[in-house]
Amino acid sequence: MRVNYAKFMLRYLLAMLVVSASLALFMLGLWPLALASLLAGFWFVHNFKDTVAERRYDGHFARPAELDTLTHRPLEGDGVLIGSAYRTLLAVRPGSAGKKELGHFMWFGPNRSGKGLSITSNLLQWRGSALVVDIKGEISEATAGYRQDVLGQKVIILNPSSFERSHRFDPFAEMETDEQIFSAATAFMSPDQDGENAVFAQRAAAALAAIIKAAKVNGWPVIPTLDGLLYDAEGLKGAALKLHKLGDRMVSKWLTAFLSKAPDKMDWAAAENDRFLKNSWQRLVTAAQYLTTDGVIHMTSASDFRARDLMDRPVTVYLVFRESELDLTLPLFNLVVDSIIRTMLRTYDLNVPHYSQHGVKTLGIFDEAYRATPHNLPDYSATVSGRGIYLCMYVQSLAQLGERWGRGGKTTLLDNIHTKIFLPSVDRNESDKESTAAFVSNSCGQYMVEDRSLNKQEHAHELSSGVRLTTRELITAAEFGQLKPTHSVILTNELPPIFAHRLEPWRFKSFEVAQAFPLPEIDVSDDLETPERAEVAAEAPPVTRVNRAALEPQAAQVTPSVGADQAATTPQTADLDGAAASGKSSAGMGERHEEEPLIGF
Question: Rounded to an integer, what distance in angstroms lies between the CA atom of residue 403 and that of residue 240?
Fold first, then answer.
C-alpha cells in the first residue's frame, strides 16, 4: 500500500471539521442533528481513502475496446485473418499496429487442431499473390478453383511426383548474374549441414555453378542438363571436358576451381587416386540425384510463370510436394522456394519506387514447416517483410523451431514474428519450462489477486484475518491445455493477449461458393521442347523426358464449371456466415465444434 500524503492531510482536516460541526450542534441543543452529522461525517471520512494499492501486475485478456484496430473491415482481402472474439472477426491489416506492413504470423498447434482451417479461411479472402506449401494436396483442392475463377488469379500447381500433373518452373531461369548462380549452388549444397566435412560440399559448389552457368549460356534447362552431365558415361572426366569445350570463361574458371587445374591440363589417370576430388564429385552426385527423376525433370524443363509475376499481378502458386516423398524432394523444394523468394527480393530492390507503391503483396504460407522445411526461413523472416512479402508459418510446437533451425534460428523467428496464434496444447506439464504451454503462460503475464487469510493463535480466543495482494498467472500451462479445441490464445503486436475462437472456413459464404469450383485443369501440352543431352554430349542419349500424355488420367472426369450467369451472381467479397447452410466440411477440414466458446463468439 502507498500513502498519498495530500489526501491524508485532507482526510485529517475533514475529520476535524466533522467533529467540530457535531460538537457545535450539540452545544446548541440540536443533539439529534449533531448525532446524524457525526455518523454521516465519519462514514464519509472512513470511505475517503488516502492509500492506494500498488498493482505491479495488470495482465488481462484484451477487452473489446482494445481490439478496435483488428476489427475494422476484416474482409477487405488485404489482411490476414487470425480468429474471432466477442462475435467479431479479427484481422491484421495494413496500419493495424501503426505500420503499413502486416508482419509475419505463426500458428502453433498439434496435429488436427485446426491449423489447416486458418489456411483455407485466409486463401478464400486474400486478394494478393500467394505462395502456398501444400504437402497433402488438400489446400489446392479446396481453394485453387475459387482463387482462379472467382478472384480472377492465375493459378500454378507445381508437383514433382512422377505420373502426376504439374505446371513447370525452372528455378534457375531468372538468375541473371554470376553471383546469383554461385549463391544458389552454395545454398543447394548446404555445406553448413555437413559439419567437419563441409569442405567437400564447398568444393562441389564450384562444379555445380559451372554446370548451371553452362546451361544458361546455351539456353538449356538446368536440371535436365545436370542430369545429362552427372551421369556421363565417362564420369567426371567426360563431364568436365565437355563443359570446357563450351569455351565460356566463367564455366572454365569454376571448373578449374573445382579440379585445381584446367580440364585439358588434368592428369586424369592420377586424378583417379585423388580421394578429395572424387569425394567432392560424389557429394555433388549424391545431393543432385533426387533432382533427376522423371517428375522433377518434367517440372523443371521450362517455366510457365516467373517469380516476379507474383509482384506484378495476383498469382497463386501451390507447391504440392507430397509428404510421403519429402525425404527425396526436400532439396528441390528448398531450391524452388529460395529461387522464388530471392528473385522477388532482387526485383524489388532494383525498382523500389515502383514496387513499394504498385507491387502486389504476397502471402507465403508454409504449412507443416517442420516437415517441408525451408532451411532459410529465419533469414526470410528477418528480411522479406519490408518488400511486401508476409509469411504465415505453421508448426506443431515451439520445440520444433529449435530442433529444425537451432537455438539461433528459433530466436530469430520468434523475434520477427509479430503475431503468434496458439491452439490448445495436449501437454499440460507445468514443470517443462520449454513447452509451448509454458511459453503461452509466461507470455500472457500475471495479475494481482487478493489473498485472504484467517488465523487463530494457540490459547487465543479471537480470530485474526488478513488480506494481501499476490500474483497469479493469467493462464497457467494446465489451463491452456484444458481449453476447448475451438479456442486459441493470440499474441499480436502491442495488444494484450487475446482469448479468441479459431478460424473455421465453413462460417464464410465464400466457402460454400468455393465448392462449385473444382481444381483447375493443368495444361501439359508439349509446346516447349526439352533440349537433348546430345547438345551437351554428342555420344550421350537424349535427356530423359516424361511422356506427358501418360500423365493424363485415363478416364478424367472434369466437374462442369459454373455457368457465366451463376458466376455473375457469385459474391465477390466473402462475408461471415454464422452457420453454413449445408453443415458439411470438405476433406481435410478437421472436425467441427458447434458449441459456443467461453468468450461468447
Answer: 39
Crossing angle between the packed helical segments 198-218 and 222-230, to the nearest 10 degrees: 120
Across 59-80, b (16+ Cβ under 10 Å) vs e yields bebbeeeebebbeeebbebebb
Instruction: Tell the residue number behind the cell numbers 505446371, with chain if given.
Output: 167
Cα gap 282→21, rounded to integer Å: 103
Torsions phi, psi for 313 (to 5 deg): -155, 160
- Look up residue 65 and give its DSSP letter: G
Q: Are 522 and 166 in contact, with CB atoms under 8 Å apart? A: yes
Dihedral of the CA atoms 265, 270, 275, 281 (nearest 10)?
40
pLDDT band at 7 (very low <50, low <70, confident <90, very high): confident
Distance in angstroms (rounded) separating the CA atoms of residues 494 and 504? 26
Measured CA angle at 395 (ends 390, 401), to 5 deg: 90
Tens of pLDDT, residue by residue over 21-40, are 888 888 888 888 888 888 88
Per-residue pLDDT, 460:
58
What's the pLDDT at 534?
35
Tell me the three cell numbers of residue 8: 491524508
C-alpha radius of gyration, the chain, whole number: 33
Closest-CA residue to 126 (of 79, 83, 73): 79
Going 437 to 442 to 447 to 448, the CA torsion angle's sign is positive
Segment among 71-85, 371-385, 455-469 with least mean pLDDT: 455-469
The rounded percent of the chain whose pLDDT value lies above 70 is 83
Q: What is the DSSP letter of 275?
A: H
Q: What is the pLDDT of residue 573?
A: 35
H or E element that contains 461: none
In this structure, how many other beta carbons lie within 10 angstroms of the beta carbon of residue 304?
19
Distance CA 88, CA 501 (A): 10
Question: 586 versus 387: which is more confidently predicted?
Answer: 387
Considering the chain, what percentage of its residues have pLDDT values greater than 90?
Answer: 54
Angle between helices 198-218 and 275-288 (to 10 degrees): 60
- The amino acid sitting at 591 is E
Name the DSSP letter for residue 29.
Answer: T
Nearest to 109 by CA among 85, 141, 83, 135: 83
Q: Alpha-carbon distance 460 to 442, whole Å?
A: 43
Q: Cell 530469430 appears where? A: 412
Length of the chain: 601
Whether 561 and 570 have beta carbons less than 8 Å apart is answered as no
Maximal C-alpha separation, the chain: 130
Report how far residue 66's alpha carbon sits from residue 594's, in angstroms, rounded to the nearest whole number: 27
Residue 477 has pLDDT above 80, yes or no: yes
* C-alpha span between 89 and 425 (Å, rounded): 23
